[in-house]
Design a protein that fits this description.
Layout: E1 12-17, E2 23-30, E3 35-40, E4 61-66, H1 85-98, E5 104-110, H2 111-122, E6 127-135, H3 140-147, H4 156-164, H5 174-182, H6 187-206, H7 220-234, H8 243-246, E7 256-261, H9 269-278, E8 283-287, H10 297-313
Parallel strand pairs: 3-4, 3-5, 5-6, 6-7, 7-8
Antiparallel strand pairs: 1-2, 2-4
Length: 318
């Protein structure tokens, strides 16, 4: 069973100007002459972490991480103006051109996987292949599962805590209620909604491993992070309904690996099945004991194996 590669440090970090108030954090590690791969983090607004470099053999890969607009180390944190899915796709193209890369591998999970698919549908000639984990298709039904009681049937106690964090009259429209609370002038209301949302996401993603902090401080950065998630959700991720699946005809020639955990309650298995039906040539790997996040022996083995297979298939030797 494969494990993460050893920890490594970037050999380059910089902020990429975007022609707006946003400056996007970008880093490179691994082999400067290796196969370019870009890691697309989830969220929106989760940001990259050092362990994200470790899915790739640093002898074979030129590993590129970036924090999406308003996320992680990108500046200014939490900025919502000029922050949409199309802006993120354009940032990816800016990064590719700045680094003088002709083609690269896309590696993304959850929201990052959706972003990879959307980028490839616009810039397929720039894509060597895709590794997609925990398929998120950004459809209305995917949002409804998470915020209209689908996952709430699995974790009803935490679901009730989330509903209790917003005014009673808003419970029928949870998304709007959360937005009203998060942008309310009452700081206590902001903190209450932000904590309930983060606890809800943690419970659904981590299951029995989730341990809420009863007295944990809710920081301004946490509020801004949740606001960004709501910003994307209330704008339906800035795409048309079912856009990803309907445009998969553009992706048929791109080598793709789709990896989905059977116990993923953030992005249920149906989404993975729908994507593989739209991309029948893709390799589809169902992990019987894995959930949503990119952790655990089974999930790490599958992701590292996929990246190793791409490296071998492209016949690059260190």
């Amino acid at each position: 069973m494969k494990t993460l590669y050893p920890e490594i440090n970037p050999y380059q970090t910089f902020f990429l100007e975007t022609g707006s108030q946003h400056a996007v954090y970008v880093e490179q590690s691994g082999n400067p002459d290796g196969i370019p791969v870009i890691f697309l983090h989830g969220g929106p607004c989760s940001g990259t972490k050092p362990d994200h470099r470790r899915f790739f053999n640093p002898e074979f890969y030129r590993i590129i991480l970036f924090d999406q607009r308003g996320c992680g180390r990108s500046l200014p944190f939490g900025e919502l103006e000029h922050n949409s899915t199309q802006h993120l796709i354009e940032d990816m193209e800016r990064i590719r051109r700045h680094l003088q890369i002709d083609q690269w591998l896309l590696f993304g999970g959850s929201w990052g996987g959706a972003l990879a698919l959307l980028y490839a549908q616009q810039h397929g000639d720039k894509v060597l292949g895709m590794i997609i984990r925990g398929v998120f298709l950004a459809r209305q039904q995917d949002l409804d599962w998470f915020i209209k009681g689908g996952a709430g049937l699995i974790y009803p106690e935490q679901w009730q805590e989330l509903l209790a964090s917003i005014p009673e009259q808003s419970a029928e429209n949870l998304l709007q209620g959360l937005c009203d609370a998060l942008w309310h002038e009452d700081k206590a209301a902001q903190k209450r909604a932000a904590k309930a949302w983060m606890d809800w996401g943690g419970q659904v993603a981590l299951g029995n491993e989730f341990q809420p902090e009863a007295d944990g401080e809710v920081t301004e950065q946490m509020i801004q992070q949740v606001r960004m998630e709501m910003h994307y959700a209330r704008h339906r991720y800035f795409i048309e309904e079912n856009q990803i699946l309907e445009n998969c005809r553009r992706l048929q020639s791109i080598p793709t690996v789709i990896i989905h955990g059977r116990y993923d309650l953030v992005c249920p298995m149906e989404a993975g099945m729908k994507l593989v039906q739209a991309l029948p040539a893709a390799d589809y790997i169902v992990l019987p004991n894995a959930g949503h996040i990119a952790k655990g022996d089974e999930m790490i083995d599958a992701l590292v194996t996929a990246s190793d297979r791409f490296a071998a298939g492209l016949a690059l030797t260190p």
